[in-house]
Amino acid sequence: MSASITPDIPLEIVEKLRSARRVAALTGAGVSAESGVPTFRDAQTGLWERYSPEELATPEAFRRDPKLVWEWYAWRRELVSRAEPNPGHYALAELERRVPEFTLITQNVDGLHRRAGSRNVVEYHGNIHRTRCFGEDRIVEGREDAGEVPPRCPDCGGLLRPDVVWFGEMLPPGAVERALEAAESCELFLSVGTSALVQPAASLPYVALDGGAMVVEINPERTPLSGSATYTLRGPSGEMLPALLE
Ligand code: BV8
């Protein structure tokens, strides 16, 4: 039984973390994996195994079958509501307290970073716990109990949808600007738990590299970023991120 050992973190990373004024982190589904939230790359479980996220996370899928898409998000919302932040989430919240200017850019819509105490969070792809009117494109407070699936907008009667960014949809302009500014100006950029495939999020580490930042990837597996990152820490974020704090 191997005791959990503190992973070896290169001294250069530790020193950079100590000296950096501006740090940015980009997280993906992998950072919530140890909270029991399935990643997009994991085979979908149970009821949803015959669908791929790319098939359901699109406006076309919602127009074609709003009930199916709404129920997929209701299932995910219920799952993440039962999940707890893991040591990786808490370590990122602690990093924010230690670093003068820390920006957390997350592709995750599960809200676990805020539940772990992170404050300066850019919800790059929205938030599954917020609901929007599909027609008016504005936030509508909880209508879950309306009975109809999907529920309808109390003002225009249009269908409600989760306030997330689907494939083929533009990202919230404010989020794009805040993330770009953080990537351009940081001295250290952490890419954590992401397959580094979905654009424009996947370009952010390269913006940081172009700006002269050290880029550190934390992922048990290789990704398209691995060859360009300054360092790659091969392991789960729930162990690697707390090790950065030691
Ligand atoms: C846009 C919210 C402008 C919804 C998501 C070619 C054709 C068509 C389109 C495109 C194209 N090229 C680019 C595009 C645009 C497209 C895109 O990038 N497509 C990809 C598939 C090529 N992007 C868009 O459409 C974006 N909008 O570009 O607007 C535009 C407009 C019109 C037309 C063109 C362009 C919008 C993208 C946002 C989509 N919404 N989420 C929801 O959640 O339901 S994306 C969703 O998937 C996530 O948010 C995330 O971004 C992505 C999944 O990636 P990851 O988070 O990385 O998760 P994944 O499962 O893939 O990987 C997990 C990783 O964790 C693995 O590497 C694993 O090894 C690791 N891991 C596992 N365990 C651990 C771990 N790591 C650490 N610790 C562990 N314990």
UniProtKB/TrEMBL annotation:
GO CC entries: cytoplasm
Binding site for Zn(2+): 133, 153
EC code: 2.3.1.286
Enzyme's top EC category: transferase
Subcellular location: Cytoplasm
Catalytic reaction(s) noted: N(6)-acetyl-L-lysyl-[protein] + NAD(+) + H2O = 2''-O-acetyl-ADP-D-ribose + nicotinamide + L-lysyl-[protein]; N(6)-succinyl-L-lysyl-[protein] + NAD(+) + H2O = 2''-O-succinyl-ADP-D-ribose + nicotinamide + L-lysyl-[protein]
GO MF annotations, alphabetized: histone deacetylase activity, NAD-dependent; NAD+ binding; protein-malonyllysine demalonylase activity; protein-succinyllysine desuccinylase activity; zinc ion binding
Binding site for substrate: 73, 76
Chief site of localization: cytoplasm
Ranges where the Deacetylase sirtuin-type domain occurs: 6-246
Function: NAD-dependent lysine deacetylase and desuccinylase that specifically removes acetyl and succinyl groups on target proteins. Modulates the activities of several proteins which are inactive in their acylated form.
Family classification: Belongs to the sirtuin family. Class III subfamily.
Protein name as annotated: NAD-dependent protein deacylase
